[in-house]
């Protein structure tokens, strides 16, 4: 379990983090979301020891993170920190050894991870001969090679094609299934919604929503009501709500939970209901509301 409590960091007049609480449980994937400049990278760098927070506590399994704790963390920074001229197989092995792995094991596991990421045939290639997306895959391999208990990934899907996104998502699910605590930031909310168990959303350095993703969707934003009618309807005659989109015999509404019954009853009186669906708001809608 990774626990961040009351983390605050100021750079001059800029408050990067303001009392951030964050919990990442073993065996679960947590999405860390926020607009640009919200404080995500500051929090993640603080966890990994690259930033010294002004206040707050960071614990791994109820123990403050020290040098041994850092070796249990795999970190992917937003900006790559690899060696351009070094062959990628040697490079991943090198970083595995820095994390305390024996050389032979670092070499074997590094090749396996690069193979899983679709780079098994490029082990001898220097990093700067790879595309942007493949360089991102190498950075991911560096974060994964020592099979860490905690994964911190800052925008890991940047530059990846859809196939690589699927491969990475499967790898993160596998690491969580093995008991790792996974935290990643991303602006690709469709990927986040499909992948995570939990979500924490911050804006201007403060947590605005946090918890299991289904609970966050239920508790924030406006649910989506969709209806098909038996007869064409003049939607302007529905006083209870205005549709977001409509055809003569169907409509979509963003409507508060306590108004759904009255809206449905009004539609049924005028057009007769053929089909109705009611879903919590999308993660994108929640994000827009809580970071507004």
| C-alpha termini separation | 30 Å
| Main β-sheet, spatial strand arrangement | 6-7-8-3-9-10
CATH homologous superfamily designation of the largest domain? P-loop containing nucleotide triphosphate hydrolases
Q: What is the mean predicted local confidence, pLDDT?
A: 91
CATH architecture of the largest domain: 3-Layer(aba) Sandwich
Q: Roughly what percent helix?
A: 25-40%
If you compute it from the alpha carbons, what radius of gyration comes out, rounded to the nearest whole angstrom?
Answer: 23 Å
Order of helices and strands: EEEHEEHEHHHEHEHEEHEEEHEH
Number of discrete domains: 2
What general outline do the C-alpha atoms trace? elongated
Describe the structure.
With 292 residues, the chain is an alpha/beta fold. The chain folds into 2 domains: 217 residues, 3-Layer(aba) Sandwich (Rossmann fold); 59 residues, Alpha-Beta Plaits (2-Layer Sandwich), CATH 3.30.70. Helix content is 34%, strand content 28%. The protein is built from 10 helices and 14 strands. The strands form 3 sheets. It has a 6-stranded mixed beta sheet with strand order 6-7-8-3-9-10, sandwiched between helices. Strands 2-1-4-5 form a 4-stranded antiparallel beta sheet, with helices on one face. A 4-stranded antiparallel beta sheet has the order 12-13-11-14, with helices on one face. Helix 3 packs parallel to helix 5. The two termini are 30 Å apart. 39% of the residues are buried. The mean pLDDT is 91.
Short description:
The chain is an alpha/beta fold.
